[in-house]
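Re-run with default settings, no changes from the original entry. Doing this only to confirm the output is reproducible before filing.
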Amino acid sequence: MKRIHRVVDRALQANRVAAQIANNAFDRMFRPGALIRSNQTPYEEIAASGPMRVRYYPPLTEATIPLSDGTQKAVVHTEQTVPIVIVPPLAATSLIFDLLPERSLVRYLRASGFRVYLVDWGSPERRYAHYGIKHYAEDLLGHALKCVRAHAQTRPVSLLGWCMGGLFSLIYAGLSHDRDIQNLITIASPIDYRQGGIAARITGALDVPAYLIRKYTSFRLHNVDPAYLQVPGWVNALAFKLTNPVGSLTAYWDLFAKLADREFLATHTTTSHFLENMEDYPGGIVQDFIVKVGVDNDLSRGRIEVGGRVSQFDRIECSLLVFAGAEDAIVTPQSAQTVLNLVQSPDKEFVIAPGGHAGVVMGNKAQAAVWSVLAQWLETRSGPCRAVAA
């Protein structure tokens, strides 16, 4: 009789698992929105300009927030005087900073007592195809900081940028000589495009053709209509996956193997939604990055021309914290570290953290290796605490 009971229990368990797999598979294929958990931290839009929006994340109402390691983080009820402004890259959306409730940098920083703002670049439609470094690093970021300061009622700010967002932050600081930028943090931001990685191989392959074109022809990339150079978001998504093709295939195998696990499915679907839905690169940015950042490698010398003016990194004197991913195939630690030799900041640090280009900011180890480190670093450089406004 016991043997019969065991057989029946196993059959019932197998039936439940089969039902879970069928339900999860249906949602994954036909109702993925029911599984996506990104962008859940409440925010207010305080400003807009063209495609850009500026977000403010008000104080959290919960007493604790979940972390990716299964623990809970207490929400502090005081906040730092100096607000932090998060600057995303283009192509990869701002969702990476609020990817999952337990893996949300904006929520983590807000719970740690920081006033958090985020620049959302929006979708660069064809009418914005001419947008280049000047538009993003000077015009839009400058406008965003003006609005943040008015909203926060304070001049000093901290900037935190991942990848191209870090470059925009550095270029703005070197161009404006804004002494009220108190702290600047970059994560996986490429400075020297000759220091290994995929970027170095691509730009290296362009050296000879670029030299010959410049010497023997009148063709210049900046004379091409930027609308023809707009890179679609799906191309950016495919290129990002090709930087780690084995990892991409493994992720789909994991999905198949763990289809009965609803929590895993939600995490996988949310992450896939982020990676598969990237935005376009405007043609103007493509022109500037191929010529100025790639072929000419201007950032490695700490000087880059922006709209007839020159951004000079040796004018940057704020506290600087630079992160690089140990396994980053796009931006090597050597490429990111170069900026420390270009700025005049007396207070500067360099940290190599585990993870690839995206993993360094959103991976399983990011909370301990990057978020916690930058939060502690900022706490001592963001002024006195004050009670959170009701």
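The radius of gyration is 23 Å. The mean pLDDT is 87.
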